[in-house]
UniProtKB/TrEMBL annotation:
Subcellular location: Membrane
Molecular-function annotations in GO: ATPase activator activity
Gene name as annotated: Atp6ap1l
Membrane topology qualifier: Single-pass membrane protein
Organism listed in the record: Cochlearius cochlearius
Protein name in UniProt: VAS1L protein
Keywords (A to Z) from UniProt: Membrane, Transmembrane, Transmembrane helix
Length: 198
């Protein structure tokens, strides 16, 4: 697949050649294409050759990537084929790169397989937050399971300060006179209150 620049100023004789291959993979039960090599030609002579790594997609799809470059800051998907040629003198970067070599219909790209990693920073942060929320939920369930019942943890004690309403006929049985300094006072018996221990 050749990309020619025609009569555009200094790029008049420049041609970018993409060497694509197709292979059948039994694991996915379909054909895949891959960009095997990229060549830069100027005035019909090869100036630089780069080996492509990881640029592949199913044959019925296209391949898309935000940056395909020979620079390390863009993950360097294009690697100079030899240390002795002039490839190291060239820096190649494609922005918003999309390619499809086979099964092209009506001049439009098919559905694109993107080069974005499955573990981008946003996805990793989402996984970490999900893990934290899961740990909080497990801790809350653990505390609920081990919560002690209040039914069996109480005891009743007698209280002289609790006054309940009683009938006059029962007052004689429930009162006992106390003799002190000439005044009559009464203390109520059998009155109880409950303390609950948590």
């Amino acid at each position: 697949l050749s990309l020619k620049f025609g009569d555009i100023g200094n790029l008049k004789g420049l041609v970018i050649r993409f060497l694509l291959t197709t292979s059948y993979y039994q694991l996915s039960v379909q054909n895949w294409f891959s960009l095997h090599r990229l060549q830069l030609l100027y005035n019909h002579s090869i100036q630089a050759t780069f080996n492509a790594t990881g640029i592949c997609a199913p044959a019925s799809y296209s391949y898309h990537c935000e940056h395909v470059s020979s620079l390390q800051r863009y993950d360097a998907l294009l690697i100079p084929s030899s240390a002795n040629d002039l490839s190291k003198l060239w820096e190649v970067t494609f922005i918003d790169f999309q390619i499809q070599g086979f099964n092209i219909r009506e001049g439009h790209f098919a559905y694109a397989k993107d080069c974005a990693s499955f573990f981008s920073p946003a996805i990793l942060m989402g996984l970490v937050m999900s893990l934290i929320l899961l740990l909080v939920l497990v801790y809350a369930l653990h505390m609920l399971i081990h919560l002690k019942s209040l039914d069996g943890h109480y005891e009743c004690k007698a209280s002289p300060a609790y006054f309940a309403q009683m009938k006059d006929s029962d007052m004689g049985d429930e009162k006992e006179p106390l003799r002190s300094s000439g005044n009559e006072s009464y203390e109520l018996r059998n009155q109880q209150f409950c303390k609950i221990y948590i």
